[in-house]
Amino acid sequence: MGTEESLLKLPLAETFNLETAVCSHGLFMMSPNRWDPLSRSLSRPLHLSNSLDNTDIPSVSVDVTICQPQQDPHSLRIEVRNSASGSAPSLSQEQQDALLAQVKRMLRLSEADERNVREFKRIVRQVAQEEGEETQYMEDFSGRVFRSPTLFEDMVKWPRTLSMARALCELQWELQHCSPSISEDFIPQTPAGKESKRRQKVSKVASKLTSRIAESKASSEDYMNLKLDCAGVLEENVQPSFPQNDIESDLHGLNELSTTDPPSARDRIGNFPSPRELANLDESFLAKRCNLGYRAGRILKLARGIVDGQIQLRELEDMCNEASLTAYVKLAEQLSQINGFGPFTRNNVLVCIGFYHVIPTDSETIRHLKQVHARNCTSKTVQMIAESIYGKYAPFQFLAYWSELWHFYEKRFGKLSEMPYSDYKLITASNMGIKNIRQVKRTKIS
C-alpha cells in the first residue's frame, strides 16, 4: 500500500464536533491518548485487531492521528502510520475496519449514540423551557462521553491515575521493543509461596532493566550486560532465549531513539497493553514497574480472566444494545463478580458501556453538590440527592450531571481542550476548592 492508502475517512453526523467529543472526559488526558490543542487532533496507537479483548491476534499496533478538517467537517480524517518507522502501513480491509471500529467506539459514533445525543439535547431544551433554567452549557456539551478503543482499557483505567496509565503504556513499549521475550522470561515457574531466591533476584534484575531503559539511562553496553545478567540468573531454572540477532535488534532500537525523533519515540509511550500482554507478567514485577501496589493483582486477575475466557467482554458490551433496565441489572451483577469492581468503578464502567441513568458518586460528587447546589450530603445520601437534582433529565442523568461538572471545571481551569499536556496534573478534585484555585492559577502562570 502507498501513502494514499494510509489515510482513512469516516463520515459524520451533523451534530458531531471532534474537539468537544474528545475533550469531554478526563480519559482523554490519559496515555496513550495525546490531544493537540493547536491542530485539534487526537493521536494514539491502536491495535490491528477487531477483537474487543485483543486476545486472538498478536498485539500489533499502528499510530493514528484523527482530525476533523475545516474544509470537510462532515468526515474524520484518520492518518495511519507504522509505530516503529512512521511510514504508511499496508492494511488489509479487515484491519481498516478494525481501526475504524475502535475510532467509532472512542468517539461514540454509532447510530444509537447519535440518537442519544439528539434525545438528550431535546430533554435539555424542554427542561429549560419548562423551568426557566440556564442550561446553555448542556446544549454546548457534546453528549458523547469520550472512552477508550476497548472495554478492557476502560476497565483498567477506572479509577486509576495519569501516572498509572503512562507507566502501563511505557511497559507495553518495553515489551514490544526492548525484549520480544520479556513477558515470558519473567513468568513465575514455581507455585506461589515457593519462589526461590534466584527467582526473586530475577525480578530485581528485570525491574532494573526496564526502569533504566524507561529513564533513558541504559547505554547499549549496559543493556546487553543486563540482559545477559538475566540469562545467567535464570540458567538453572529456566531456559531463556536471548539470540544474538535479538540483542542486536534491541541495541539498534536504543541507538535509533535520538533527540531528533518525534516525542512519541523519545517518551517511549506504547499502546495500552492488551489482556494477553499483561496476563503473562509476574505480579510483583508489574506492581513495582508501574507503581500499582495491590492493584497489580486486580489488573492481572482481570487480564487472565479475559484470556482464559471466564470474562467475555464482547458479551458484556453487546448487552448494552438492549438498552433496558434488565440489561443494566445483568451487567452490574456480572461486573460485581470481578475483583476490585465496587459500586463507583462498576458504575463508571457502565457509563463507558453506554448506560447514563445512574450517576457514579464519590467524594467529588459530594463536593460538587455542596459547592454548586448548596446541598449537604454524605456517602449514604449522595445518590438520592443527585437523583432529586438530575432526575428530570432521565434517562440521561449522568450526562446532565457530567456536563455541569465539566462546565464548572472549565470555569476554574479554562477550556480543557486548550490546556497543554504538562498542566493535566492540575485537574484534580482537590484543586476545585475555593482555597486551592488561586494557587493553581499561580502555578499555571509561573
Q: Could you write a compact summary of the structure shown?
A:
Helices cover 51% and strands 7% of the residues.
For the largest beta-sheet, the strand count, sense and barrel status come to:
5 strands, antiparallel
SSE pattern, N- to C-terminal: EHEEEEHHHHHHHHHHHHHHHHHHHH
Determine the fraction of residues in helical runs and give it as a percent range: 40-55%
Low confidence ranges = 1-5, 189-196, 213-266, 436-446
Number of helical stretches of at least 4 residues: 21
Instruction: Return the structural class.
Output: alpha+beta
Radius of gyration: 23 Å
Strand order of the largest sheet: 1-5-4-3-2
Principal-axis shape equals: globular
Total strand count, please?
Answer: 5
Keywords:
446 residues, alpha+beta, five-stranded antiparallel β-sheet, 21 helices, 5 strands, disordered C terminus, ENDO3c domain-containing protein
Ordered list of secondary-structure elements with their pairings:
Elements: E1 7-11, H1 18-22, E2 34-36, E3 41-47, E4 61-67, E5 75-82, H2 93-107, H3 111-131, H4 136-140, H5 151-157, H6 162-177, H7 182-185, H8 197-214, H9 220-234, H10 244-256, H11 263-267, H12 275-279, H13 283-289, H14 295-307, H15 313-318, H16 325-336, H17 343-353, H18 363-373, H19 382-390, H20 397-413, H21 434-445
Helix pairs in contact: 8-9, 8-13, 9-10, 13-14, 16-17
Describe the protein in words:
It comes from Citrus sinensis (Sweet orange). This is ENDO3c domain-containing protein. The chain is of the alpha+beta class and about 450 residues long. About 50% of the residues lie in helices and about 5% in strands. It has helices at about 20, 95-105, 110-130, 135-140, 150-155, 160-175, 180-185, 195-215, 220-235, 245-255, 265, 275-280, 285-290, 295-305, 315-320, 325-335, 345-355, 365-375, 380-390, 395-415, 435-445; strands spanning about 5-10, 35, 40-45, 60-65, 75-80. A five-stranded antiparallel β-sheet has the order 1-5-4-3-2. Strand 2 (about 35) and strand 3 (about 40-45) form a beta hairpin. Helix 8 (about 195-215) packs parallel to helix 13, helix 9 packs antiparallel against helix 10 (about 245-255) and helix 13 crosses helix 14. The longest helix has 21 residues, at about 110-130.
